[in-house]
Task: structure prediction
Amino acid sequence: MFFQQIINGITLGSIYALTAVGYTMVFGILELVNFSHGSVYMFGAFLCLTLMTALGLGFFPAFIISIVITGMLGIVIDRLALLPLRRKNAPKVASLISTIGISIFLQNLVMVMWGSETKNFPLALNLGHIQFNSFRISYLQMIILLTSLILMMGLTLLVKKTKIGKAMRATAQNMEAAKLMGINVNLIITFTFFLGAALATVAGVMVGMYYQSVDPMMGFMAGLKAFAAAVLGGIGVLPGAILGGLIIGVSETLAAGYIHSGYRDAIAFAILIAVLLIKPTGLLGQKVQKKV
Amino acid sequence: MKLLEVNNLTMAFGGLKAVNNISFHMEEGEIISLIGPNGAGKTTFFNMLTGIYIPTEGSIVFNGKNITGTAPEKIIKEGIARTFQNIRLFPHMTVLENVLVGMHSRSHNGLFHSLFRTKKFYQEEKRNAYKAKELLATVNLADKCNEYAKNLAYGQQRRLEIVRALAAQPKLLLLDEPAAGMNPQETEALMKYIRGLKDKGATILLIEHDMKLVMKISDRIYVLDHGVKIAEGLSKDIQNNQDVIEAYLGKGA
Amino acid sequence: STETAAAPDATEEITIAVAAPLSGDYAQYGNAFRRATELKAEEINAAGGILGKELKLTFLDDRNDAREATNVAQRLVGDKKVLGVIGHFSSTASLAASSVYEEGGLVQLSPTTSHPDFTKQGQYMFRNINTQAVEAPIAADMVVNLMDKKRIAVIYINNDWGITARDHFVEAAEALGGEIVAEETFIGGQTQDFTSTLTSIHSKNPDIIFLGTFYAETGMIAQQMKQLGYDYPLAGLSSLYNEELIKLAGDAVEGLYMTSNFFPGDERPAAKEFVDKFRDAHGQVPNQFAAVAYESLGMLAGAIETAGEDRAAIRNELAKIADYEGVTGSITFSKDRDVIKEMSIIKIQNGEFVIAQ
Amino acid sequence: METTVEHVNKKKKIIKRRSMIYVGVLAGLLIIPLLSLNNFTMRMVIMAGTYMILAMSLNLITGYTGQLSLGHAAFYAIGAYTSAILSMRFGWSFLITAPAAALMAALVALLLGIPTLKLQGAYLAIVTLGFSEIVRIVALNWMGLTRGPMGIPGIARPEVLGYRIASNTQYYYLILALVIITYMSLYRIINSRLGRAFIAIREDDLAAQSMGVDILKYKILSFTIAAFFAGLAGSFYAHYVTYIDPQSFTFNESIQVLSMVVLGGMGSMPGAIIGSVILTWAPEMLRFLEDYRMIMYGAILIVMMPIRPQGILGGIRFKLDKEEENQHEAVGSE
Amino acid sequence: MLQVCNISTYYGNIQALKEIDLEIKEGEIVTLIGSNGAGKTTLLKTISGLIKPKTGSVKFNGRQITSLDAPEIVKLGISLSPEGRQVFPKMTVGENLELGAFIRKDNKEIKESFQRIYELFPRLHERKNQVAGTLSGGEQQMLAIGRALMSKPKLLLLDEPSLGLAPMLVETIFELIKEINQQGITILLIEQNARMALMVANRGYVMETGKIVLQDDAINLLESDGVRKAYLGE
Ligand SMILES: Nc1ncnc2c1ncn2[C@@H]1O[C@H](COP(=O)(O)OP(=O)(O)OP(=O)(O)O)[C@@H](O)[C@H]1O
Ligand SMILES: Nc1ncnc2c1ncn2[C@@H]1O[C@H](COP(=O)(O)OP(=O)(O)OP(=O)(O)O)[C@@H](O)[C@H]1O
Ligand SMILES: [Mg+2]
Ligand SMILES: [Mg+2]
Result:
């Protein structure tokens, strides 16, 4: 049972990690607690499902198209809701409230469009599993973990090594100075949102497929857990998101399996708080020495 | 009496010793300047005196008391107040409020008195407001009392910062490049002001790159370079010290 | 919104309110209420309305939120045209609103609230669904005797309904000689992953898993059980009756047994007529929630017909209802304004719900 | 320079004007129930009042002290439960349960704050969020104490000095009193040495520290005071709706209150009041949109923020505040 | 090269610039002096597109740039070393300089520019892997100037470049200004140190409360009584 629980935990953790990678990227670049991430994640999953069922597309085409469309939704969100705030040098909390508005908007829109019922999401990648003595691992579980790792590495490279990545970081640290470097700040932020939304879709679709169901509320807890994972790992630290996700997933699973299923989220959050008390900047976050 | 005595103070950031084994002392009523090239460790020295950095080695004795590693909010109670190289006012508070915050360590109204607006509350508020305005008047900011600090011109902000520090009635005032960004006229006025403080018995430690100001005002000067003390003495000695000229003043001085 | 069916005297109206979650995560249940009551209202108006006046429904969204429910209740109580309320859906909303209805002297007939305390809140609270005190023992009998499973693991949703279901089920099952080997819970709408719960149940080696859950979670539980390679029979309550469940979980729920208030395959004419009409109107078969809402409106309309347009009289008339022929069977309010309904046992066979007994 | 006599006169005039404004506003508030508003309107006003207390108190933490808290509902819940349990178990009256609830919330905030308030920004945000989830989940599972999801029905109506509060009008006066108490207390705290320390922390914590403000201590103080009033609001809610269960204290509730604060204007008490009124009424005003109601609600948040990013009253200093300052000035030059 | 015509800029309701006219010819060093709050920084920000003027126009090499965004103006060859340094605090010195060359594609020459900056400011070379936020004030100032040079501008706007620098470095900076000017870069310089500024400049403008009150050759300004009294501290 223990091994199986660990596998369960790692799988759940990699689901959180997958969601958290996109979250922490936008979070790290824009220093914005983005409550719309969860609903974009949900929207991506619904879109992919609709493309498959209503238009009869195959999984992969539907997947790609939904990534692109949801990515554009990310752009729209930025342009309509957040750009006007940036223009006016709004405080960060104002943007936070806007993302809450977006999330309420999207969730209810999806409910009106698709109904609030939980819907079946076909298991398009049914690859089977490996059976060990007392436990089993499915290939889909491995793919989810792998995807989150690959995305993490890809994004790390993007942010650290490429020119656009540097522009993203510069924009995050000092927007005005970034403009003076010739960086088109709004384009960069829009790109960041595109990427964030696209990543959310990847996560949403994979998770929908894994649980074989989607519902309009699926993004809510996912968004919170992604936020938790991102913070636990250290804000903006991509490998931290993976680590944070895994820790939350495993602790939640073990709590449910060995302590009390009713308290699982409480225990997970308690562990999160405990870790932050010991390491106030998250697991992989670095303490910045204040300089005056 | 020695007001401040610093022994073998060192501050290391990783491998870099920003301040390296500095010993230093100040008498009451002195104005001492700390000069040196950029990155010599002057601000770092201030940061250690005010508890923002905890020294890697060495000790700071102030007014007979070892204050090494004491937290900033306690340091000011001991009697050391400072200004910052990059102005750090409370931008969305009024000028008056900025000064009143400066008096925080010297006032006492707590939850009870604030909530019930006791006599003591009003007395202290009145007294503080009065003193704050007096102080502001000394730097010609009395008429800006209700202005947000962020709306002040640069030079005014610098002066407000000094007044805010003075509001804590420090025994020792640390000024980090107070004249930076001021034009010669304003610098002149600042110099007069600092002199005035000295006449009233203040002890001041000054970091400044404006040599005119430094040379005219300082009782003694310490020179740092690469974290190490390379010279100390009177203005004249420093001005003619070959090491200092090479490292810091340049030929033009 | 108003639903009008051209028939009786359209200038005079009788207004009944339907208060339910029409938006938010519970909107699907509110919509079941809406569709069913609209259907019933059409029927009533086609048959000449109430007291010769046209029946008008007004729908109010409570988002399944306690605070909004009280707002809605206050609105309705203050609107003298409203003669009775069908709602609310969940216990949170119903209980929070009940004090307002009671004070305003307005009938609150909830088709679905199963919280044991609900009808104790006042004289104006009615319900049209079995409490778990009635249903869960039937389910226990189904599990222990009909299915002949003795070692039982229970998964229940952590809300008032789930907890009462568990309590009554466990008590009855143990009395019948069953043994509860595991009890696991989860927070509805929050937990998606049941693998750890299932794994720890697996380690207890039960004969069956009994589900005090709704269909959405059940789909996930069944799927995840299958993915983990466990193969336990499943049993549940009438809450699971939903066509979506089979779509959601396919053969993972094959063989699931459950109790049922209402079942579209029911041969009684009242039920048959309702199912046909509903299917014609909405292209799908109604679920239990639609059924109880439908007959609730029927009963309330009947009470108004006899009592006239007087709120207190309507309450008294409603309390007298006995042997009302509803789509879920014959309905009689007890003196506590609760109902006891007959239940049947159905199961999923070849991807369809069929009568098991 | 004005003469002293003029000064004194001016000061008297200001005080006179101020007290006239106060009296006017108070009179207006007192006669509201006499306008024979219907019960529904009264209920909305009362709920708005409850949110005013919540929003004003959150404003102390987030608006004035600059610490983002996403878990205000936790203290609201603790207040509601404390009150409900004391009232149900021991039959205590509102006059005892309300302060007890507020103190309980404050105590919990204190215990939580001591270790966690050294965290900053998003780190603190997630801790407060996590804490409020923990509170809700404990309330959900600790059947023995809270009856879990069964909730606590039939909570006694408040009795104040032998006078039983039952009608909406009576509740109105009760919440009015609580709102005034909250407003006055917070106003006095903010306009004092404490308040200046809070704001200084928000503006520049390092500079504040260098001026002698013990940041951790003041953050804890601000957090505790805010929790105190949130607990008070919770107590009122419990005795008003007479039924509570954990579902009334979700994360969404925290978010709702935060939205009120930000929309109204962070660091503005009147702003928090206006924000609560708007966001309490908006969902009811939008009912005619039916299914599209919540979509619209979301859209309103999105659209309103850019119109005034600092919030409706954010960054505006009020007449009353200004006069207070003038008074300072007058006092100063005596 | 640069023509500023009739510019008025506002912060909300406050008018910071009042109908400013200013002209810079190719190859010149022009200095702008004026007391605190006169609007010098505002003018530079307006030229570089960070703030939009309410009225008036800015032309660069005959082209209207008034409505262009800052990044596009940078691409045309105007670079600003801003007031308050504005370094990227969490990036290293090297990365900061790299970003200075963001608009350039000539990788080989970029390397040379690095070399040059590091020669000018050996301290930056020494600290190329230190994050900029922990640099001392003066070191950050060097970085800001170096970064502005990295874009190879045609017109360089310097907002108080000597602020916070040690006396020796101040000399270096002024020599640098002369030197890069000889290499063909046009310069607009704001300085509190008006004397030194006027000594390197060809021409100067004097600003007071949002208006240009005086303009002349630098030598004449140095000798003008008004200027000496108000800005040279004599
Ligand atoms: N937190 C830190 N981490 C790493 N290095 C630091 C840190 N703080 C300061 N330094 C380094 O220590 C040295 C001393 O810095 P300090 O700010 O004390 O210089 P300074 O003498 O005040 O110079 P300036 O005149 O330019 O302000 C600098 O080289 C700086 O880069
Ligand atoms: N963001 C702002 N909002 C409102 N007013 C501003 C803002 N920035 C500057 N000002 C005001 O505009 C005027 C011009 O400011 P500016 O910074 O351009 O002056 P400056 O000549 O650069 O002064 P300094 O020598 O102090 O740098 C000042 O009165 C200042 O108070
Ligand atoms: Mg320094
Ligand atoms: Mg300037």
User: Anything to note?
Assistant: Chain B touches chain A at residues 13, 43, 47, 52, 84-86, 88 (CB under 8 Å). Chain B is about 40% helix and 25% strand.
